[in-house]
């Protein structure tokens, strides 16, 4: 282990133990999310349960809900308050911080609700098989967007005007308000999964079945290949102003510069590496150039991109980090692991 | 392929429509063995499947390695197995039923090529159900029927009540010409013991070429486009470097024709046996236990595929023998 990175293991739990709380929840943590209104933190699990915590009182009792008959596959903040949860029982659920649950849609027992994206304007995009269903505030179905193969990920741009969906041999871009539903397809051989727009809307990036990311500059459709990773990339995230894109999938946090002509022809910056443990999750702070990262051994840390300074959040030893998220103001961080540990930390609290 | 015991075993059921695949599946599920299975079926399944956890798959074959037509995986399986792993502990095994027209290679390759699948699951066996009455006709008109036999570890020769002993013997002869390593079990209404289907661990490197088959040398029958098998043996030690160079070049050049390759090798100066297997271009190999005391240290390699050139393959394999004297 590199010197000075995490200090001793006991120290690494300092933030979790003094400003937060952790729980053993008993099943794979698939997703974590904070309500966009700052109320409520939610954890979605592989046993179909959801667990709700109060960000203001992490150590208070967490509420457990039997939500899906099967596994929770994805959990995201809804457009204004509460959460949306998709399951392998075909259900799209809306969940409130007080534990209220309502089913917004039921796609059938053998269908998987695998990817959801929401936008503050009230739009919700829900990927089920090859289709992306677009719902409005009132959960009315606006349209169903068809793709040539199963959709591996879905995202809105920052303005909520476009949707990107990853699939085999490319990413489809749809205008939410266009009357004729034909996508602009960004082609690239192979299977594309998670997708995101850069915050300024000029680039689209996808993770691939291979150990690589692919990107397109939309102005001239230039391709960007981001490869050289030892494993698949399960998580990536843009910093608030979009200068950097942080990715998991290597034994450090890999950051690609999206400024000064980058990432074309620019090497990535590596942070928090050196001990040979795989980074499994990343989440960029919503405002500052700070990235939170979770590792295969359970370590959670924050890294300041400019200085490279590392602050540990939770010590290794509780399973590979499988979910990680900031709240909208960047005062709270939540994470979960494959073996069912979940943590919630209030970084604004005095130590 | 992962060899650890905490991986979940996956059994693949293939076979033509009407051969009795779903009947076999329902037999496995309803028999009183105390095991719970997650079942992945295809959308064209003919009968209902009687199980709590059934997932409807839409077979999606994805080319990898920038579009090589033989380096394919089942994208839907990668996704489904990944999802199932998030609720592991809820079942003891997974059974994947393919459509009648499916080529088994992408399914098998998924277990070699996808790291998440490799980490969490292991391919237990490919089981092919064939209809004794119609197999010969199917082999004549379908590549997939041949491939399903070529990839099988177990072949359930079904509908035995509809054929004579002579007809059955002829069907078995044809099966063995394609794949002498598969075990054949005769059955009526897919009635075979569940333990002969589940828990075979047939893809474990330790079990490669374990069965010594009655190899039929059907040299009079070598139409090039037909799938057949060839086996070669040498009794001198093999030079590991020479073998690696030869086999990687061979798989690269002929991988599309080579459906399955398996070998057990005696490397020079090495006490342990080296086991090797490949599906098309995708190879996997490792040292397995030592040679048995007193057993001859013979190296053996088997090819199942199309357009196999016997003299060329023999020369290539014999060329891997270590030069005398070099330790
Ligand atoms: Zn290939």
TrEMBL record, chain B:
CDD domains: CobW-like
Signal peptide: none
Name the UniProt record assigns to this protein: Cobalamin biosynthesis protein CobW
Lineage: Bacteria, Pseudomonadati, Pseudomonadota, Alphaproteobacteria, Acetobacterales
Family affiliation: Belongs to the SIMIBI class G3E GTPase family. ZNG1 subfamily.
Single annotated GO MF: nucleotide binding
Stretches assigned to the CobW C-terminal domain: 227-321
Chain's role: Zinc chaperone that directly transfers zinc cofactor to target proteins, thereby activating them. Zinc is transferred from the CXCC motif in the GTPase domain to the zinc binding site in target proteins in a process requiring GTP hydrolysis.
InterPro entries in the cross-refs: CobW-likC_sf, CobW-like_C, CobW/HypB/UreG_nucleotide-bd, P-loop_NTPase, Zinc-reg_GTPase_activator
Catalyzed reactions: GTP + H2O = GDP + phosphate + H(+)
Assigned keywords, A-Z: Chaperone, Hydrolase, Nucleotide-binding
UniProt keyword annotation of Nucleotide-binding present: yes
Top-level taxon of origin: Bacteria
